[in-house]
């Protein structure tokens, strides 16, 4: 599978990942290697990765607890202390082996330690492969507010090996599908259509779908690396999705949602708002709703839940001059940015989602 070229780095796939690593880690290239993992990837993915890592360089492993709840400044401080105690310097290499939480936090820790170390992302979840590890976004949450602190800083490379997906629970695989669906909805109608029937999906099919998803995200990022305009389309479903994810993470009365589960809800809601704003045809909205509901179970919201979610929208990173900015759809395969929506439209969207 041909590598994908991005801004100053490449994205490699499957066997090519390890050929690249072997060449990169030639004697004299780096002083030592620090692998950052969580307890899940340490158990299920790290043994295979280490077996492929042909190098004489000293290797240290830094592990933290898994989950969005640990994507915090406190965890980042622990990583910085570990790097310090183990003798990391600016010629050290950080390799992040894990899902989106880990690549976000590990990339941020590497980007800020001693004002910047080289890092590589080795995504091990579908979500991280098609979204979090690509595009240079790193960061941590501020309380329950998603990705409020961070920098855009590209890795040395991204290494996508689909065999790690064999270790994932079904819910985590579904979570990754949400971002792939999003890429089709904002950029490629034909790609979206491939998700209308996932029965009989083979490993080769999945590799091709992952590859195209990464292509779509990379093409958008290359045109707008710092999210001044076009890159905002990658946030379709995320304005409401992030608010829902934050609320369910914070509330003791709610079951925490995976990122993709929250974004799936957000995409339905924001597609409904697109119809209400006379942008998206009703028939296309119905198709979007049916496909997403066929993959993701429905979540119940009370009127109080909706009020709280709307209150959290003010913290969205796309906002300008205190106004909430949505990414909406004009049609499947074409998104538009910087659209506002009245609270009543949001309530109506929740009502239709639950019907």
Describe what you observe in this structure.
The chain has 355 residues and is α/β, with parallel strands linked by helices. It has 2 domains: 4-168, Rossmann fold, CATH 3.40.50; 172-354, Dehydroquinate synthase-like, alpha domain, CATH 1.20.1090. The chain is built from 14 helices and 11 strands. The chain has helices spanning 15-24, 39-44, 46-52, 73-85, 100-112, 126-132, 170-187, 189-193, 203-223, 238-250, 259-276, 282-295, 303-312, 343-354; strands spanning 4-5, 10-13, 33-38, 59-64, 93-98, 118-123, 140-142, 145-149, 157-160, 326-331, 334-339. It has a 7-stranded mixed β-sheet with strand order 1-2-9-6-5-3-4, sandwiched between helices. One of its GO terms (biological process) is chorismate biosynthetic process. Catalyzes the conversion of 3-deoxy-D-arabino-heptulosonate 7-phosphate (DAHP) to dehydroquinate (DHQ). Residues 63-174 form the 3-dehydroquinate synthase N-terminal domain.
